[in-house]
Every structure is written in C-alpha cells, then in structure tokens.
C-alpha cells in the first residue's frame, strides 16, 4: 500500500467517525427540539452540523451525501427562520432523514453508489415537510422498530469507533515522559548489577522501577477510558420511536454522560441497555390514558445515569412506570417450579426471578417482550463483565435497575488457589471466606457434596474433579466460599496462595466459551494460570445439585 493510499484511508476513517458524531448529535438535538421548539440555539447547532457534514462530504467528492445533507440544511434554515413550524411529524421526518444520511454515507464510501430509496426520500422531503405528510418507511426505520437501538450503518460506524480512540495530548505526553523514566531506571539497574552495587541500592532501584511500572500501567489504562455518553445517546431515539410505535409516550433523560469507563466495558454494555429499555417500555411505562387516570404525566419518564462509586462504575435505569408486580412474579415462579413456596422471600429475592431464562410475566407475545428472553441476556452479559445487578421497585411508582461494574477488564484483583500442580485465580470480589474442608468430607475426593457453614447448608464442587486433574488430594483441603448473583457455593482446593493482581489475557477463539473459565494470566514465575468464571461455576453447581444451592 502506497503512502497516498494510507493517507486516503486515514482521511476516510476520520470522515466516517466525524459523520457519525455529527449525525448522532443531530438526532439527540432534534429530539430535544420536539420539547423546546422556541430554543433558537438548538436550530443553529443542528444547522451547523448538517452544514459541516455537507462540507466534509463535498471536499472528499461524496456528491450524494453532500446533496442530501444540503436538502436537510435547507429545511433547517426554514425552521431557523420560523417560516416552517415545528411539530412532531416534522421531527419524525428529520429523524428519518438522519437514518437515510447514515445509509448514504456508508453506501457512497463503500460502493460509490446510493440506493434509489434513499435518493427518493430526499427528493420528497421538502414537499412532505411543508404539507405534513409521512414518507413511506423504508429499511432504516423498519430495522429500528424490529430491533431498537440497531440501525443500518450503525455496525459500520461502531467498528470504526471501536478501532479508534481520541486521546488527550496531555495523557500522551505523560506516557512519553514515563517511558523515558523507565528507560533511565532500567539503565541504573544495569549499572548497579554490573558494579555489584550494595543490596540497599539495588532494592531502592527496584522499588523505583516498580513505582514507575505501576504509574505507566495506570496511564495506559486511562488512555483506554472513554465516556459513556456515546452509548447512552442513541437510546434517546430508541425510547421515542419504540414508545410511539406501541401507542405510548416516553422520554429518556441522561445523567453522567461524561463518566469514563474502559472501552471494552462499553462494548459489553450495549446489549444489556437495549434489553433493559425494551423491558421498561413494555412492562413499566403505561399507556397515556392509563397514566392520566393514575394522576401521572401522560408521558413516561426514563432516566439512564452513570456514576463512579468505590472503584466501580454504576449504571442505573430508572422509570416511573407500573413497577414490578410481586404477586405475579411469585405466581409465575411457582407455576414454573422454580420455588416450592414464596414464604419468607424478600423483595430482592423475588425480583431476581426476572433474570432467569424463559421467565416472563407478559400475557401476550409482542415484538418487545413476552418470549422470556431479554433480561436473562442482561444478567449473562453483566456476569461476563464481573458485575452485579440489583433491583428496586415500588409497585405503581416505578423501578430502578442498577449495574455495578469494574472500571476495567484488563486487570483483576484476584485470589490465587492451587490444585495439584495448577494455579487458578478467582476474582477477589466473588470470594466470601475460606474454611477447612471437614475430614469426613475428604473421603469423597472426586464428588461434590454439602457442608454445614454456621448452621446453613453450603454445596461445594471439587475443582480437581471438575477440571479432570490427576493426582491424589492432600489430607488437608480448603473450601473457598464464592458468591455471585445471590447464589453461594464452595470450591474445594489444595492450597490457598492468597491475594494478587492479575493482568487478564485472552484465551483466544479456540478456547472461547470454555465452561468455568473466563481468561488467563501469567504468574511471576512465567507459568500460565487460568482465571475462573464464578457465575459459570455456580451454574454448573445448579445443574448438578439444584436443590442444594444456597441463596
């Protein structure tokens, strides 16, 4: 590839990223304009974004993109001059135009040609805007209604964004300075070793090198941190369109868009947020007439917020809908044989059933819910992120679902254990305590069982048996008590090595999805240690002895 080709490719990637940023912001501001039609600054900002897209496309020779953006620009100019009134049908047309612009950008940059449906839309847009007519829905909007939050072109734009990070120059400067300091420290260590320096000098140099390494690691992690805003904002449109398509009215407010989290966590949050919002719109938000009769605002309110708390990121979705119906959830759990009795169950334990596979209280199947899939996907994804979910609900007033997630997936605070010659790492947050395996239980080295832990039954699994490891267990074994999602079990191990910080390494596609394993790490002596998937191990325990799982 020639230097000219490389430069053109970089320019094209920059154009695609900036085009999506402009279109996403236009989409967000158009939805705001619907409720603030007198806000002149909104008109000016949206107009500038359409003008920027037109100019960028024109400079690169993307004629169809530029001409289509020009149609939108003309329409926005009329709105800005107040010669065209703002109404919900016009906002819908403009949002549809944003969808088609996304489509045209992708088609023209990839194939050089644009579909006739997209071009016809922009030919009809000026007249439709004046007469208040709808333009027949084509693929972009149809796709959105089938799967809210997923639009044509989104995947392409998302791929470009996930491959590219915008980095503050100050962070790069700090990284460069640290690299220089590490080189100096390395040179000093080499000199001390060559001169056979004093033990105290070597120790001091080692401590300084270690400090620089930790600082360098922190700076690299900060570079990977991105704000949650870009994955929050598309849901403004999702909530509006999906609610309207199902005879409801709802608006989404965003809080904490500037909160930063590792880019890998961001990618894993997309599907859970879509499912949670679908669930809130279907089960939570009532139809306008019902809300009015209850004394509520006919327009439902959802709040998506993010904030940092105790070294974690917290994501919350709050709605002011009907809340969870405890009685119906219990009835469904009883009918599915998930519980024998509801006596003594707390609200938290009852609400946890909504995350079980196949669980739904919907009386009819719709394109939103009723099939019993969705919330179990949410839990599975959050478990994969080493996170936790909690639910608070007030019947008749609304529900708040909270995710608590690690800031990064690259490093884990772990607890190392040994089985035979192998070392395994457990996420420290999942470890509750360690106890000695009773001698009478040691006679079943290849099975599982139950021990009494302060008067309550605790089921356990032998890691030696689970991972088919050879050799005989020692006379004295330990049980590591682990907890996830309210379920608790014990893992029988030979040795307890203690706490350690582990840099997570992927196992690769060949070993992806191995039951009970979430990754690997390199130990100080160069050996590879597997990182255990606690939720997966608990699911395995449920399969083996479902009646024995505590919690």
TrEMBL record:
Leader sequence residues: none
Domain of life: Bacteria
SMART domains: CheW, H-kinase_dim, HATPase_c, HPT
The entry's keywords: ATP-binding, Chemotaxis, Kinase, Nucleotide-binding, Phosphoprotein, Transferase, Two-component regulatory system
Gene Ontology biological process: chemotaxis
Chain positions with Phosphohistidine modification: 51
The keyword Kinase belongs to this UniProt entry's keyword annotation: yes
Any one of the GO CC terms: cytoplasm
Occurrences of domain Histidine kinase (ranges): 207-409
Reactions this protein catalyses: ATP + protein L-histidine = ADP + protein N-phospho-L-histidine
GO molecular function: ATP binding; phosphorelay sensor kinase activity
Domain HPt: 4-108
PROSITE patterns according to UniProt: CHEW, HIS_KIN, HPT
Domain CheW-like: from-to ranges: 411-543
Region annotation (Disordered) ranges: 136-156
Feature: compositional bias, Basic and acidic residues: 141-156
Regions crossing the membrane: none
Enzyme Commission number, as recorded: 2.7.13.3
Its biological purpose: Involved in the transmission of sensory signals from the chemoreceptors to the flagellar motors. CheA is autophosphorylated; it can transfer its phosphate group to either CheB or CheY.
PANTHER family recorded: CHEMOTAXIS PROTEIN CHEA (PTHR43395:SF10), SENSOR HISTIDINE KINASE CHEA (PTHR43395)
Protein's name in the database: Chemotaxis protein CheA
Species lineage: Bacteria, Pseudomonadati, Nitrospirota, Nitrospiria, Candidatus Troglogloeales
């Amino acid at each position: 590839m020639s230097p000219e080709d490389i430069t053109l490719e970089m320019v094209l990637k920059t154009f695609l990223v900036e085009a999506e940023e402009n279109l996403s912001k236009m989409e967000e501001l158009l939805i705001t304009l619907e409720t603030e039609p007198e806000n002149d600054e909104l008109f000016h900002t949206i107009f500038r974004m359409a003008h920027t897209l037109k100019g960028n496309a024109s400079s690169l020779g993307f004629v169809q993109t530029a001409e289509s953006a020009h149609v939108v620009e003309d329409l926005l100019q009329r709105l800005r001059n107040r010669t065209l009134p703002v109404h919900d049908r016009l906002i819908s047309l403009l949002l549809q135009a944003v969808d088609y612009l996304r489509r045209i950008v992708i088609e023209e940059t990839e194939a050089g040609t644009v579909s006739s449906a997209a071009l016809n839309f922009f030919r009809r847009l000026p007249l439709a805007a004046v007469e208040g007519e709808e333009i027949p829905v084509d693929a972009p909007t149809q796709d959105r209604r089938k799967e809210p939050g997923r639009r044509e072109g989104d995947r392409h734009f998302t791929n470009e964004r996930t491959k590219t990070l915008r980095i503050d120059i100050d962070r790069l400067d700090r990284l460069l300075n640290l690299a220089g300091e590490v080189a100096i420290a390395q040179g000093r260590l080499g000199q001390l070793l060559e001169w056979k320096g004093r033990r105290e000098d070597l120790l001091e140099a080692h401590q300084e090198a270690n400090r620089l390494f930790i600082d360098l690691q922190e700076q690299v992690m900060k570079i990977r941190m991105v704000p949650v805003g870009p994955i929050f904002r598309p849901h403004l449109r999702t909530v509006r369109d999906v609610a309207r398509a199902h005879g409801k009215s709802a608006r989404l407010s965003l809080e904490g868009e500037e909160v930063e989290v590792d880019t890998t966590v961001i990618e894993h949050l997309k599907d859970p947020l879509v499912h949670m919002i679908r669930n809130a719109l279907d089960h939570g938000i009532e139809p306008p007439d019902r809300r009015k009769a209850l004394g509520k605002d006919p327009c439902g309110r959802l709040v998506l917020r993010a904030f940092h708390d105790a070294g974690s990121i917290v994501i919350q979705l709050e709605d002011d809908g009907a809340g969870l119906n405890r009685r119906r959830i219990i009835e469904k759990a009883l009918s599915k044989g998930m519980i024998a009795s509801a006596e003594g169950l707390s609200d938290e334990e009852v609400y946890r059933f909504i995350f079980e596979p196949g669980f739904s209280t919907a009386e009819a199947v719709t394109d939103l819910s009723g099939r019993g899939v969705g919330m179990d996907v949410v839990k599975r994804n959050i478990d994969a992120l080493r996170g936790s979910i909690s639910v608070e609900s007030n019947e008749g007033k609304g529900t708040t679902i909270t995710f608590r997630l690690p800031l990064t997936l690259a490093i884990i605070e772990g607890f190392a254990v040994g089985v035979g010659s192998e070392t395994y790492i457990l996420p420290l947050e999942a470890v509750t305590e360690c106890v000695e395996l009773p001698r009478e239980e040691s006679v079943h080295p290849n099975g599982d069982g139950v021990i009494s832990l302060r008067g309550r039954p605790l089921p356990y699994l032998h890691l030696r048996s689970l991972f088919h490891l050879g050799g005989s267990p020692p006379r004295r074994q330990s049980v590591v008590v682990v907890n996830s999602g309210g379920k608790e079990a014990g893992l029988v191990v030979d040795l307890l090595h203690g706490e350690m910080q582990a840099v997570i390494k992927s196992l690769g596609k060949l070993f992806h999805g191995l039951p009970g394993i979430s990754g690997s790490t390199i130990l100080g002596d160069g050996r590879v240690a597997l990182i255990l998937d606690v939720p997966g191990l608990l699911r395995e325990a449920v399969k083996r002895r479902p009646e024995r799982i505590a919690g």
